[in-house]
Design a protein that fits this description.
Blueprint lengths: L1 E2 L12 E5 L6 H16 L3 E6 L17 E2 L4 H10 L2 E5 L11 H6 L3 E6 L11 E4 L6 H11 L8 H14 L10 H12 L4 H9 L4 H13 L1 E4 L4 E6 L1 H6 L22 E7 L4 E7 L5 H8 L3 E2 L3 E6 L3 H12 L8
Parallel strand pairs: 1-7, 2-3, 2-5, 3-4, 5-6, 6-7, 9-10
Antiparallel strand pairs: 8-9, 10-11, 11-13, 12-13
Helix pairs in contact: 1-4, 1-5, 4-5, 5-6, 5-7
Length: 335
């Protein structure tokens, strides 16, 4: 994988471009691809965004989201676009299998593939150009850097600002996580100087749910949370019946794992949700407990040091018991 700055000259030649992100995109994934989409369109490229799956309703306000193609719903159309693309940008993931059923079409595509991502251990051989920087707060920050460094700061507009601020804000936990550097605040200030209404972004992301989600959160905290004080760990499991009872949709469980670390003394929060095809884990930690390593070693996952995800093909009961058995070996690290 060559340095991304070697790609900058190609920005001046319009091309057919596909931009994609990981499955079940969050604010940073959707924000980064749409921010890049508006930028490339402004440069004259024929750009299209393809999501591997559907996305949360609270992202539907974002400029350009109505043009995003859901691969699972429109497979033939999406595959044709991938096959005819001259350039494919891969954002907010660094291993092709994180695109679920899009992995094979992306692997088979012979065009130039470019990586922009901030997760650990990238699949470098899959990309011609790219940048992988784990010190960055978000992929949205990296797309902003890409625009500035490529010499096109004059192309920044309010649509790009709204999209890029979304990922910057969500991936830093509204600017409280350790990844919130001085550069993050400078970026936010520059987007504000463009005229960004940051209050609107916060309201659309955090104040835009149905009543059922709030009742679900209350139910989960009361009935599905277990505190393992000897390991400074909070564990929550969500059953398929819980999801059905409260009519939980994509995105409704976003942020649920963060409640676990609000308990005094907790250093690890773990949430597992019983999905139809697998059990999905979310891990959050404080201090130097590395959940990226933990997820990679035990639950086929990964991410960042203090925020990671994983999966299991075991039943919900079996994967919860596996977690409880494994965590005993980390007692000293979690003290």
């Amino acid at each position: 994988m060559q340095a991304i700055d070697l790609f900058y000259p190609r920005l001046n030649t319009p091309a057919k471009v596909v931009i994609t992100m990981h499955q079940k995109p969050d604010g940073d994934a959707m924000g980064s691809v749409l921010g890049l989409y508006h930028f490339l369109t402004a440069l004259g490229h024929e750009a299209v965004v393809i999501s591997p799956t559907n996305w949360a309703n609270f992202l539907d306000w974002m400029p350009g989201v109505d043009r995003v193609i859901d691969f699972e719903r429109y497979r033939d159309k999406a595959k044709n676009l991938i096959q005819s693309a001259e350039i494919i940008f891969c954002l907010d993931f660094n291993i092709l299998h994180r695109t679920k059923n899009m992995e094979q079409p992306l692997t088979e595509a012979t065009c130039t593939k470019i990586l922009i991502d901030h997760h650990q251990q990238p699949q470098e051989e899959a990309f011609a150009y790219g940048i992988s920087d784990t010190s960055k707060s978000s992929t949205c920050e990296m797309v902003y850097d890409f625009i500035i460094a490529s010499g096109h700061a004059d192309k920044l507009n309010l649509d790009m600002a709204a999209c890029l601020y979304t990922g910057l804000m969500t991936d830093t936990g509204s600017f409280r996580f350790p990844s919130t550097t001085a550069a993050v605040h400078r970026m936010a200030a520059q987007l504000k100087e463009l005229g960004l209404n940051h209050t609107h972004v916060h309201e659309m992301i955090y104040d835009n749910f149905l009543e059922g989600r709030l009742r679900f959160i209350g139910y989960a905290l009361l009935n599905r949370m277990e505190i393992l004080y000897e390991y400074n760990t909070a564990l929550m499991h969500i059953t398929r019946q819980d999801l059905q009872r409260f009519d939980i949709k994509t995105g409704d469980t976003e942020g649920l794992v963060n409640y676990l670390l609000t308990i005094q003394g907790m250093r690890l929060g773990a949430l597992v949700i019983d999905r139809d095809e697998e059990r999905k884990w979310s891990f959050r930690s404080k201090g130097n407990f590395d959940v990226n390593l933990f997820a990679r070693q035990h639950f086929e996952g990964g991410g960042h040091q203090n925020a990671a995800g994983g999966r299991s093909s075991d039943s919900l009961e079996a994967t919860v018991q596996k977690f409880k058995t494994i965590i005993k070996t980390y007692q000293q690290q979690l003290q």
